Each structure stands twice: as C-alpha cells, then as structure tokens.
Amino acid sequence: MSAPRVPRLAALRYRTHVQQLDRAPACARGPQDVAVLDAGVQDTGPDGALWALALRGLDVRAGAWPDALALAWTVRGAPHAYRRADLVDVERALRPWSAEDAAKRVFDAARPLRAGGIDPRDALAAAARALRDVVDEPRPKGEVSTAMTARMPEPYLRWCRPCGTTHMYEQTFRLAALHAGLELEPGTSPPVLRRVPGWPHDAVARTDAAPPGGPHDLVRTALRFLGPTTPRRVAAFLDSPVRDVTARWPDDVVEVDVDGERADVLAEDLDALRTATAAADGPVVRLLGPFDLFLQARDRTLLVPDTARHRALWPTLGRPGAVLRDGEVVGTWRPRARGRRLALELDPWEPWDAATRAAVDTEHERLAAFRGVHAA
C-alpha cells in the first residue's frame, strides 16, 4: 500500500494547529491547557518562552512568570519552561539512553571524559551530585561554576580562552543541573540556580533511562509537534544519535508522503494531518519568536523551500522572529524598542495583502501589550 500523500502546506497547517498557534489570545485555562509544555518551551531572548506561551493562549506578560511554571536547562542545554508539576517526569525523560547518547549531548566534553575512562552517563551523575551539594541555596552561575571547578577532576574541566580561566565543560554543567534537582530562577542574568522545592532525594543523579513512551518522552513529543518527521531529523533536534532515536521510535506511526519525501506521523494524528486546512475565518498570522518550537524543526526546506532565505531566518548569531501566515513563513521581524514604545523592523518576503498587513499590525499591538509598552 502506498503512503498517503500530504501536501506540504497541510503538514505546516497541522503543526500550526497541534502547537496551538491558531488559538485566541488568553483562552487557555492555565499551563495545563498548553500542549507544547509537554515538550518544553525554549526561553531564549526577550520574547522567549512567555511570548511563545502567550501566542498559544496563555494569559502572561513579559517577566511575570506564573508559579505553576518552572525553568530548567534541558534539551540541547537550552533553558526551557515546563509545568512545575511535571519536572520530576521531565528529568526522567531527559536521562541519556546510552553512553553514545550522553556523549553526543555533552559535545566536546565526551573526548576527555572517555580518555579518562569515564562513561559520559557517569560524568553527568557525578556532576549532578556535586551540583546538588554546591547549590544549597540560590546561587548565581558564576559562583556555582567556580565551586564546581574546584570540586571536579581534570577530565571535566577545560581552559576557556574567552573567559581566561579554567572551568567545567558547559554542556556537562548545564545538562547535569536538572538531574541534580536544580532549576533556573526566571529573569536572572547571569542565571541563578536554585533547588526545586520538594525534589525527591532518590531522583538525584539517577542514570537509568526512562522506558520509551513514558511521560514527556522526547521522541514522541517531537513526533507530535514537529511531525511528519524522521528519526534523523528528531535526532538532530535532540542532539542524540540516530541509532538511539530509531530504537525508541514508536510502533504506532504511519508513513506518509509529504511532497515526495517519506516521513512518519503518530497514527492518532493522521486524521488531523489529512484534514489540515486554512482557518475558516481567515489565515492565522503570528509573530513567532526566533526560537519558537515551530521554527526548531530540522526540515528547514519544508518550512522555507527557498534555501536562499535560510541564512536570513537562521543566521549563526542574531536570529530574527518569523511572520507566520497560514502555516507559511512570509517574512521576518525584529523589535526596535524606543523608550516606552515598540517598533518593528519588518522584512516581507512577498507582497503582503491588506488583510496580512492588518493582522501583523494587530500582532504588533499584542506584542507591545505583552511587553507592557505601546506599539510605535
């Protein structure tokens, strides 16, 4: 039987819907009603996790973190927001699946660890135990880093030319933090680490991987929110080996053909994918933050077929936000703050009709209100 054919735009509209980008403002009943918190919401830049959650219907404002949300270094070592009640399950889901997986996640720290005869999983556990001892009260990252450098042996340390000092490899430090039961204090720069209240003692520095399909399973949530996709693309998204992702690939998937490329979608999501259409009351227009989950998918040619645009949307430094219309990226935006007024620098990739321009203006007002300023 041939794989069901899915047009590219249907796949993108499906992602818009499953990520709840088509919801009305402030319609969510709370964090429990925002689906992408199952996967974590990256908090990078001034319009980070809270703006991403506002776009998905949560009534939040810049800098005002609800008590029900927590922030931790997780996937790719980046800070992500989660429901506080889910943190124990999130930590378990994040335990490496193999020594190779742990090595891939810690990047350049793997070589000196292995040269010293240390399994990267054991390294994360050792770093977690030390971090737990060091962070006995809220402490800024620099202070914690200095204490960790004094505690950890040579294979954990490197000379940092920009800092002009020796300290721990960054990814080992970051990825061990949640395994130590530590969270980040929102709004702090440099970040302040603190203990998660009520963290179970027996969850500190555990190395036994969670079975596939458990709560917050990294592969399954990636399939849900970034599907249709492949093990290779999910592995790139997670910074994990393709072999480990393939071994944990769910059985309940259906292969589809997205404009000539084979990919999988969860069977329970197939109907939603097949029927993904434009909103009945007009195209959904959103100002996505630079690190919004929608833009994190590794099938960039699906998101933006014109590869000449990739450098503009995903530069190495200084990413812009994306103007999303009906599942398509149709331009970029950058904030230009002037006192209590917020202007936008817009780069339309195609002529925008009057309806799109009006919708962008509405979203501009929404972003300004989120920041507590006026649109300029």
Question: Can you count the beta strands?
Answer: 16
Mean pLDDT: 96
Multimeric organization: single chain
Q: Stretches where pLDDT falls below 50 for ≥5 residues?
A: none
- Give the CA-CA distance, first to last residue: 56 Å
* Sheet with the most strands: spatial strand order: 12-13-14-15-16
| Global outline | globular
The Cα radius of gyration reads: 21 Å
The main sheet comes to: 5 strands, mixed
Q: In percent terms, what proportion of residues is strand?
A: 15-25%
User: What percentage of residues falls in helices of 4 or more residues?
Assistant: 25-40%
Q: What's the tally of helices?
A: 16
Q: Structural class of the secondary elements?
A: alpha+beta
Brief write-up:
The chain has 376 residues and is of the alpha+beta class.
